[in-house]
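User: Modeling request: complex.
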Amino acid sequence: MLLQIKNLHAGINGKEILRGVDLEVDKGEVHAIMGPNGTGKSTLASVIAGREAFEVTSGEIFYQGKNLQKLSVEERAREGIFLGFQYPVEIPGVSITNFMRTAVNEIRKYKGLDALPGGEFIKLMEERKKLVEITSNLTNRSVNEGFSGGEKKKNEIFQMAMLEPTLAILDETDSGLDIDALRIVANGVNKLRRVDNAFLVITHYQRLLEYIVPDFVHVLYEGRIVKSGGKELAIELEDRGYDWIKQEQV
Amino acid sequence: METDSNKIIDEVTQGEYKYGFVTDIETEFAPRGLNEDTIRYISERKNEPEFMLEFRLKAFRHWLTMKQPVWAHLSIPPIDFQDIIYYAAPKKKTTVGSLDEVDPELLATFNKLGISLEEQKKLSGVAVDAVIDSVSVKTTFSETLSKYGIIFCSFSDAVQNHPDLIKQYMGSVVPYTDNFFAALNSAVFSDGSFCYIPKGVRCPVELSTYFRINAANTGQFERTLIIADEGAYVSYMEGCTAPQRDENQLHAAIVEIVVRKDAEVKYSTVQNWYPGDKNGKGGIYNFVTKRGICKGNHSKISWTQVETGSAITWKYPSCILLGDHSVGEFYSVAVTNNHQQADTGSKMLHLGKNTRSTIISKGISAGKSNNSYRGLVRISKNATHSRNYSQCDSLLLGPSCGAHTFPYIQAENKSSVVEHEATTSKISEDQLFYCQQRGIDMESAIGLIVNGYAKEVLKQLPMEFAVEAQKLLSISLEGSVW
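Assistant: Request completed. Predicted assembly structure:
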């Protein structure tokens, strides 16, 4: 099992948000996490990534057999966990090229590999840019600075393509995207799908799932996964909204 | 969340000063203390002509009438000017023809600092003047440069060999009456660099002076004079380091630049004097007067500085824009960590018509340090259609440091435009998390973000210096306290 979450309770500033999440993700799978706003979807993503502001009060997260809570944020990243941010932050003056080169080489160092020579890095970057249909010189610009919403999300997928994670968590990557950007982002993900990696796609709408077809769909409500199913569950949610789920819980 | 990131930065900024070693070389000292005899001793040791001694004595007598300035946003412990040794020199003879004659210990010292005085460095296209304690040890490349008519030598050599140029220009931009530390320097300065670029010559290499304090209890007082004649161009770099000691050491320097019609001087500094330890013990007190004058029309002076060292920095590289259409630039990154204090900025004095100036200042404070920008933009009545743009940004790392901005603007005509922008920001927890999530640890992330923040200034540096400066920025903030 790639990712195993058992009875996870977690929160922020003393407020409990996740109230017993159970989830298993295996390699080769795409899982969608859906649910109304404020039910803990982004918190789940942050906790897996190890953001320090969030506190795990009980439960366990195992990733490739390792207890994740013992690993720092960067160790988790180097072990192959990638988080595509809902609101990617700007880093003025740091070019995407420089940023990615630092990241790629830090990860290589962790794995005991030498830094990638400059020429090879550029080659890799050009290749991965195509995957996300980045034609401009976006990579010479400062990380996310002055990017449109679509550019920011494409940049997230581009970084994912560069780092080739084993577990990629995409936090509301579809929010704020027009249909063309959505298609490009989804295509990028589909091209990166392999038997030895997995995706956790967090989304509010079913729309993205028309492009990235999930193997499993889970509904997160009030800090728990209350319903799981196949891709047809997403369609049902689109038709019926979340109210019937809420009512089932009462 | 705040405390978490505070703790993190706490851990990240415990950096070590890697130039803190002492070289064991035989040194000759002036007697401790300062009086007219000290000045006569220095002048005599240097075998100076009469006019130099007179200049020094006049400066000294004037200094006696002055008081140490207190207007800077600095807390300066009392300095006992009688408890300082004003002259220290490596004992071996100071005029050397070839590198073979240089004390091997000295060569080793400069190699350790990454400054090779040997052939390899010459090939890389940088001419170096190395100044240890009070005297210039070796100037490389002088012969090659002399083919172009360029004079690049130690200040002492210039006094001996080009007294007319010294007489004409020394004190013409920074008179000894200018300020307390300028007067002190004028009285006791020991050596420094001299550079003259003749009419129409574009200096083919970067000129570089490397200053090193070695001896204990001494002050370093060097003086640099650069003259660019009509249509000339030179790029000049200055670097400095000092050993790690518990007591404070005084450094009071003067740099004067004279630029004639259509000429340009680009002056870059990476200042890395010993900053003191984590608790604020030791470190260099750095009081420097740097000023250039754009004498002719269409002339240009560009200052770039990366200030990471010194316990106290007091420094305002300035431009007097006398010629019409002359241009002054000031690009600065000042980093303070632990208990360091910096009060630095620039003065742009617009006297000629259509003069332009730019000030870009990036302050970075960490630990319990204080970092101030102080700048004056003065547009005189006759400087019509002039422009200034100033941008002063402060970056704070942690809750215990301070950033301050003191801009002064005086505009005396209506056709000129002065713009001033200022921002204060922090490295956000979001930025750090973003970097870490990509596999970059906290320390590298801070280095990356800080270098990005300072990029506008760093890109002004010559290649040779830019790489060193980037590393230095990261190292200076290692172990800083957030």
